[in-house]
Design goal:
It is built from 7 helices and 7 strands. The chain is an alpha/beta fold. Helix 4 links the parallel strand 1 and strand 2. Bound molecules: S-adenosylmethionine. The site of S-adenosylmethionine has 23 residues, from helix 4 and strand 2.
Length: 208
């Protein structure tokens, strides 16, 4: 893309962002991202975050979801992960690492020492400019989180993960249904209409 076109596009994005009610509200309330409202809505719908939850937040930076979780989880434990840095949040431990790195699983296990109540993933692959490819890459991350959750959640634990309504959506839904008895989808109002993003809520692990 030419430099001037690229600049115009990023300016349009900035104007849109400033007009956005959730962006404004996040600034007023001191949330680090407008994404915070997506977790608020997801938790209002499914009521899954408890005061004593052992909760893992994957793809947590800049920290909106971790901020919301830390307000509710007062006697449990929260671990957040991201490839990027994240400014500290009270009562939230953070590890800067790649979820796909094989050492990450060990780091998570030694932090919690037992299986988890909640796994959240808002991971999104870096955008390439090719929407279809971006969808596939983010849904691949979602598939990895589903596999990880089937081994690391308590039997009645909850997984909430971002995914896109792309061409491989059916494959990811099939994978989730093969591992969980209850699989639901929900697109929060704070998720932009033009985005193919939705969220998966899975509970009740199938035992072999
Ligand atoms: C949409 S942002 C998350 C926003 C966050 N939920 C919040 O409330 O502020 C997606 C994040 O996923 C992270 N991410 C993408 N791939 C990752 C990976 N393989 N391991 C860890 N984090 C990853 C990105 O670095 C990015 O910070």
């Amino acid at each position: 893309m030419k430099k001037s076109k690229k600049k115009k596009k990023s300016n349009t994005w900035k104007i849109k962002q400033h007009r956005d009610q959730f962006f404004k509200k996040s600034k007023t309330l001191g949330y680090r991202s407008r994404a915070a409202f997506k977790l608020i809505e997801l938790n209002e719908k499914f009521k899954f975050i408890k005061s004593n939850s052992k909760l893992l937040d994957i793809g947590a930076s800049p920290g909106g979801w971790s901020q919301i979780s830390s307000k509710i989880v007062t006697s449990g434990k929260i671990l957040s992960l991201d490839i990027e840095k994240m400014e500290p949040i009270k009562n939230v431990s953070f590890i800067q690492c790649d979820f796909l790195d094989e050492k990450t699983c060990q780091k998570i296990s030694s932090f919690f020492g037992e299986n988890l109540d909640i796994i959240l993933s808002d991971m999104a692959a870096n955008t390439t400019g090719n929407k279809s490819l971006d969808c596939i890459r983010t849904n691949e991350l979602c598939a990895q989180v589903i596999e990880f959750s089937s081994k690391n959640l308590k039997p009645n634990g909850v997984l909430v993960s971002k995914l896109f309504m792309g061409e491989d959506f059916i494959e990811v839904r099939k994978l989730a249904k093969s591992m969980f008895k209850k699989v639901q989808f929900y697109k929060p109002q704070s998720s932009r209409n033009e985005s193919k993003e939705t969220y998966l809520h899975c509970t009740l692990l199938k035992t072999l």
